Amino acid sequence: MKAFSCIFITAFLCVSLPCAQALETKGFSPDRQIVYKTVGETELKLHVFEPAEHKSTDARPVAVFFFGGGWVGGSPSQFYPHCNYLASRGIVAIAAEYRIKSKHNTSPRECVKDGKSAIRWVRQHASELGIDPNKVIAGGGSAGGHVAAATATTKAFNEEGDDTSVSCVPNALVLFNPVFDNGPVGGWSHEKVKDYWQDISPAHNLSDTTPPTIVMLGTKDKLIPIETAERFKKTMEANGRRCDLHLYEDQPHGFFNFGKSENYRATVEAMDRFLTSLGYLQGEPTVK
């Protein structure tokens, strides 16, 4: 009976939370892992993928990805394929760890704090990483897309001890079915953040300084209505900001993952062309 209960609970969580896309991805390995933050006994690491013959004296763009999992679970390896691809195109790419409820008994606030800490750490260590601190891309899927978007939009949730004179705002956002609206009307997981939703919901903190953004969403996503993404785009453009919205017909939440080969290729190509338009990449996409 206990075994059945565990199976049922696991299945329930995978259906009710955006964690179907948070499965570990095997077959890729980062070039190195670096501790960027220590909280108590918890060490949080950046899983770094570097271009061939990369040197610390380089000044390459850098992409930092945050995994999905409903702020509850997930693995940085979800974005290993994306990191591996961008490294092959000349970008330093990082899959970041951050605190989650299942491991650290934390709330969404800590997820955002860690996301901001990661972006700040990357900028502070630009000369060691061989990156351009003015070409920082934040990306993520589902709740990880929320974390990425929150680094760019929200003013609250800065970790005590962080050097807030270093900006946590990335220069571009790459968002895969992000849960970036946490408001009371149609917002995802509003009950979890209802006491502070206005501070943590990226869609409610857009401004004329929000970085250029690409959003990729399936039309059959049961967690994020198309209307939510369209409203985000409209608000961005009302603020004079760029927001490219790509809709993928009949695709569900988590459609973009490496295991979904056709969708993976399509979304990575869209990401590549977006970054090329910003001058971060050159040439045609090489995704296979």
Automatic annotation (TrEMBL):
It comes from the Bacteria. It holds the Pfam family DLH. The keyword Transmembrane does not apply. InterPro entries: AB_hydrolase_fold, BD-FAE-like_dom, Dienelactn_hydro, GDXG_lipolytic_enzyme. GO terms for molecular function: triacylglycerol lipase activity. Residues 1-22 form the signal peptide. Residues 203-275 form the Dienelactone hydrolase domain. Keywords: Hydrolase, Signal. Residues 48-159 form the BD-FAE-like domain. SUPFAM superfamilies: alpha/beta-Hydrolases. Belongs to the 'GDXG' lipolytic enzyme family. This is Esterase/lipase.
